């Protein structure tokens, strides 16, 4: 048994503090949780620069080592360059490695050959997404296989993902740990009123604007007639994107497009005061936005598939197409009993399956075993953790 202080490196995100998405939020929460439990945690952070002046440098944030990696490129090339530099650096450190996603898994055999223990959160089944071309799908399919066989332990965030991974590796190689949500019991109305909205008189969608997330279906269904209510679609629209333009053309005047909102408190308030959260995702695992909406006590309208049914349970009214989506809007707009029942079911579901402390503790147990760390290993004093 290793008596050293437990040490973890987190790869696969843009970095923390979180400002980009679900994996970054998770990385931040896990890093802070483990740091408080005496771990040394390093998180790789991507810096896109015109010229590389210092390839790797470290700073400290709330006791977490931020490992800044400079890349002098953009787009997918920058991501691959960043992933490779992270893997090379991690190979020199005596730490367990947690990799979030498998898009750069082609580099993991090198990390494994250098003797590092690897746990990979396999995220969703990326190669099945309709938005990708055939060559990109093939790239993701290949990387999924490489990650499955290069990692010592796999994490699935949904039972259906665990079932899928069992076709790649023996089931005992995978642990199922979903995403977590922060309970929201109250929220100010100012962010709602700032958008000209009335609490309990709007529906909200919070997602990337892409075909797999069903935004066009939601907008078309809501825009079929006047409702004396609003549909708020949070997300970034890009000029020249054909799918984005079709959504905008299809929207009635009761659909609101505020763009992307990165203020966490404002987003929580918009969720909390919504009549229902609308989730059009057709693929993926335990989607962070859906989990966060359950934690906020939202009744849900969700696309009917195995991913959403397990996650939302009795908190959701499900739809399969534009007509059934409109019927769900109508039902929840006029039936207070169904809405209140869904809200109560959302909180029960969140409390039962998606509490951060329980999920992060599960990660810690898995990482301790993988690294062979002694649970009673000496812990660094708070002053050292804070980098003082």
Please give a structural write-up.
The chain is α/β, with parallel strands linked by helices and 388 residues long. It has helices at 22-36, 75-90, 108-113, 134-150, 159-165, 190-194, 215-222, 242-250, 264-272, 288-295, 306-312, 322-334, 336-353, 356-371, 382-385; strands at residues 7-11, 40-48, 56-61, 64-71, 96-100, 118-121, 153-156, 174-176, 202-206, 230-234, 255-259, 276-279, 300-303, 316-319. The strands form 2 sheets. It has an 8-stranded mixed β-sheet, sandwiched between helices. A 6-stranded parallel β-sheet has the order 11-10-9-12-13-14, sandwiched between helices. Strand 3 (56-61) and strand 4 form a beta hairpin. Helix 7 packs parallel to helix 8 (242-250) and helix 7 (215-222) packs across helix 12. The model is unreliable at 381-388 (pLDDT under 50).
């Amino acid at each position: 048994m290793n008596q050293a202080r437990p040490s973890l490196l987190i790869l696969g995100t843009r970095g923390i503090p979180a400002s980009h998405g679900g994996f970054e939020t998770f990385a931040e929460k896990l890093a802070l949780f483990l740091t408080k439990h005496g771990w040394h945690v390093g998180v790789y952070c991507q810096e896109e620069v015109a010229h590389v002046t210092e390839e790797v440098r470290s700073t400290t944030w709330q006791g977490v080592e931020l490992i800044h990696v400079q890349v002098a490129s953009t787009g997918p090339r920058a991501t691959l360059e960043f992933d490779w530099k992270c893997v090379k650096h991690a190979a020199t450190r005596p730490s367990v490695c947690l990799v979030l996603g498998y898009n750069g898994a082609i580099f993991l055999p090198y990390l494994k050959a250098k003797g590092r223990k690897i746990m990979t959160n396999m995220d969703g089944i990326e190669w099945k997404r309709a938005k990708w071309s055939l060559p990109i799908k093939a790239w993701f399919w290949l990387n999924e296989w490489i990650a499955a066989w290069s990692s010592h332990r796999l994490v699935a965030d949904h039972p259906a993902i665990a079932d899928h991974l069992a076709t790649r590796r023996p089931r005992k190689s995978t642990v199922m740990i979903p995403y977590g949500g922060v309970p929201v019991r109250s929220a100010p109305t100012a962010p709602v009123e700032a958008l000209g909205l009335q609490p309990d008189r709007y529906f909200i969608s919070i997602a990337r604007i892409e075909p797999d997330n069903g935004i066009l279906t939601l907008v078309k269904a809501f825009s079929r007639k006047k409702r004396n209510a609003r549909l708020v679609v949070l997300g970034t629209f890009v000029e020249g994107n054909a799918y984005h333009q079709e959504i905008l053309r299809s929207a009635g005047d009761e659909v609101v497009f505020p763009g992307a909102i990165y203020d966490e408190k404002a987003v929580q308030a918009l969720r909390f005061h919504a009549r229902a959260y609308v989730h059009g995702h057709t693929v993926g695992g335990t989607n962070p936005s859906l989990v966060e909406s359950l934690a906020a006590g939202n009744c849900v309208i969700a696309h009917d598939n195995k991913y959403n049914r397990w996650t939302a349970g009795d908190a959701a009214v499900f739809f399969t197409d534009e007509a059934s989506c409109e019927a769900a809007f109508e039902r929840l707009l006029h039936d207070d009993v169904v809405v209140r029942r869904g809200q109560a079911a959302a909180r029960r579901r969140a409390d039962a399956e998606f509490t951060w402390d329980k999920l992060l503790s599960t990660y810690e147990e898995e990482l301790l075993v993988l690294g062979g760390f002694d649970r009673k290993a000496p812990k660094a004093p708070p002053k050292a953790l804070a980098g003082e």
